Amino acid sequence: MMNDLTSLFVRMVELVAQYRIPLLFLSCAALGAAGAWLMAGMVFRESLLDIPNERSSHTIPTPRGGGVGILAAFIMAGLTLRIPTTFLFAAILISAVSFFGDYFRISIKFRLVVQCISTCILLFPMLPRMAALYALSNFGFSPFIFFLILPLIFIFLIGTANFYNFMDGINGIAGLSGVIGFGLLGVYTLYRPATDALQTSLSLLSVCVSLACLGYLPFNMPRARVFMGDVGSILLGFVFAGLVVTLSRNYLEMVCFAALLFPFYADALTTLVVRIQNRENLTRSHRRHLYQLLVNEFGIAHGKISTAYGAAQLAVGAGVLIAYPWGVRTVLIFLTMCFIGFTLLTVHVRKIANKQETSSSTARKTRT
């Protein structure tokens, strides 16, 4: 009897070792779903709910923090795949502080300090490896160019974390973009010639995060039972940027990989320009993003807008990866055309929205 149990246990261990990666993928999807289910089913005090206000795109009080399952999946995948401790710790630190910020007021300065610390923890241990890989750059490696571009990489990491958070404003948009962005990045880098074992692990980590977002998605789209919260959105933005930097072998690849999140960058940047032109307080919440205007001013369903953004993301992502072998000029022309198209659409939508707002304001004044 004891021998049979021992044999069964050994066989199970062998099967787990043999199917380690498929089991990891399945577990990440399950954790993404479990975290959202757990947060959606908890009994929340009013202070722990996201209460709708005039700047919200939802009308029903909804629990925050559904991204804890994505964080759990990231930690499990990182430990299983032996991702560098500094990468794991930096992401966990920034996500933990964001989770605390979902429920308690934290100053923007403190958040920014934590984000800077996390970025340093992630980035600086990677410098020797990045310098070696970037020697393969299309422009040739130069220490001067590398350290000149280093501050831009630093800003890219922090900016992407916050941009992802800014774009998590309607049902499904952050989760679906995570599925597509991390999925494209992971699959593409997984099937290119690997430079070392770390690249394979990071590629698998990207696929794991994509599957965790997939597990979370049914709890947020089409009807939101729970919101991802800063714990999920800040984490996804930071990890995506970190993977872009560490998986890129040259500057052009970094641009191409970053473009896998093109609609988020395009929407956030164009909205930022508009707000600066209007001299708005950039630290205040708002409803000026293109996706918010389409939902709130035009009455289009959340799911339709999120799906449209996902389709655009998939099209641009696939396009830029196809353009990559053709060189810098082709990639830049393609991305410039995409950005011009997005900007023209934004200008058109904002013009209509402003006319509607002016007409509504005039009607209210007439009635009074």
Question: How would you describe this structure to a colleague?
Answer:
With 368 residues, the protein is mostly helical. The protein has one domain. The chain has 15 helices and two strands. The chain has a two-stranded antiparallel sheet with strand order 1-2. The radius of gyration is 22 Å and the shape is globular.
Provide a brief overview of the structure.
The protein has 15 helices and 2 strands. With 368 residues, it is an all-alpha fold.
* Pattern of helices and strands: HHEEHHHHHHHHHHHHH
Largest sheet report:
2 strands, antiparallel
Total helices: the number is 15
Question: Over the alpha carbons, how many angstroms does the gyration radius reach?
Answer: 22 Å
Which stretches are low in confidence, meaning pLDDT under 50 for 5 or more residues running?
none
Mean pLDDT: 83
Domains, number = 1
Fraction in helix = over 70%
Terminal-residue CA separation: 88 Å
Number of strands: 2
Principal-axis shape equals: globular
Search tags:
368 residues; mainly alpha; two-stranded antiparallel sheet; 15 helices; 2 strands; 73% helix; globular
Helix and strand topology:
Elements lengths: L1 H17 L1 H22 L7 E2 L11 E2 L4 H13 L4 H19 L4 H16 L3 H7 L9 H24 L6 H18 L6 H20 L12 H19 L3 H8 L3 H16 L12 H7 L5 H22 L4 H40 L1
Antiparallel strand pairs: 1-2
Helix pairs in contact: 2-3, 2-9, 3-4, 3-9, 4-5, 4-10, 7-10, 8-9, 8-10, 8-14, 9-10, 10-11, 12-15, 14-15
